[in-house]
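pasting for ref
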Amino acid sequence: MPRLPERTRVYQCHHFDSTRWDYFAARSDDIVIATSYKAGTTWTQAIVAHLLFPDGAFPAAPAELSPWLDMRIIPLEAVLNGLRAKEHRRFIKTHLPLDGIPYDERLKYLYVARDARDVFMSLWNHYTTMTDEIMTLMNLLPARVGDAFPQPPRDLHDFWRAWTTQASFEWESDGWPYWSHLSNVQSWWSYRHLPNIRLVHYADLLADPEREIRRIAAFLEIDVPADAWAGIVQAVSFSEMKRQGERYVPGGGQFWKGGANTFLHKGTNGRWRDVLSDEEMTLYDAACERAVTPECRAWLENGGAL
């Protein structure tokens, strides 16, 4: 393994294009929030927004403050111009593995992970409630590379089988029709020792939000007034974010049937236990054996401070 991460892959599909990072001009204090998907991205964006603006007076919605740079839908020029115009400390979202973005030692990388089985349950809700308009836009937008984004299967169990055994990229082995959650986590796990990369687990955020948010603030070197902490923790609770869903959800929720309330669905873990069979767990075991080390898998399933 190289001493520092290297960009060795190009990721292009219906959702994103990793080459958009070629045009990104970093600032030395930039924050990159990374996840595969459905692992706490929107939650973490809200947390960082409240840490940077402890009074909650954001200059724009967190999804606008923290653009998804690799997403194909928003014109790249608009995203870059928006980032250039920002006077506050910037925090940029990505769903790319670490081998798909240029690594910069000056930046802080905050990676959030979640048990793959919980990711799947959340992804099923996310996928099956997407509007026809957003599906059409992703497929008809010029310069799409690879297969079209398909309509979801009718049955959750069919989706599980495809998600655990098929891949969208030739170097991955699962994740269809998205990208591999497991490989994504492994790419960041392998460099967790670097001082500017911090891995956070969704289950830990659920178990003790204030402890984890304080750790995030310390890693990002953000000084928060002592009297602001209670308000921040309350503001980023699931119930409060769901109440103000249009403020936090990408596009205000317009891309999902039912809006922001659909996007912020349950926010819980463990729902897979009553859904997936022993046979389906065998498919999961095989996917993990292909994509992640035993140590990475253990942390991914259980969390815990690193």
